[in-house]
């Protein structure tokens, strides 16, 4: 699993977002097994406790399922996957719009920018 850590936000949040993105793009399939916490930590070169925190959060959100000490699997709940997609879209849109508002870009220009750049 490819993943590049940045210094702008906690790593466990980045792990969660990365897995969410891979779910909604189909890179990770419903029911697919995730690497163990230790394997993931080695792969992305972070502390295993960080990966444990990300997995625990995702379990609480219902994104992954873990039975006893077996590997975790991605949810097969289509409604939850749709909600994850909607949440990612809303989050990205809000960040973009906040930045456009901060520099006083009019709505018409925002629409024009989007229609030119979104290919």
How does this structure look, described?
This protein has 119 residues and is mostly helical. The protein has a single domain, classed as Winged helix-like DNA-binding domain superfamily/Winged helix DNA-binding domain (Arc Repressor Mutant, subunit A). 61% of the residues lie in helices and 3% in strands. The protein contains five helices and two strands. The protein has helices spanning 11-24, 37-44, 48-61, 78-102, 107-117; strands at 64-65, 73-74. The protein has a two-stranded antiparallel sheet with strand order 1-2. A hairpin with a 7-residue loop joins β1 (64-65) and β2 (73-74). α1 packs across α3 (48-61) and α1 crosses α4 (78-102). The longest helix has 25 residues, at 78-102.
Descriptive key words:
119 residues; mainly alpha; Arc Repressor Mutant, subunit A; two-stranded antiparallel ribbon; 2 strands; 3% strand
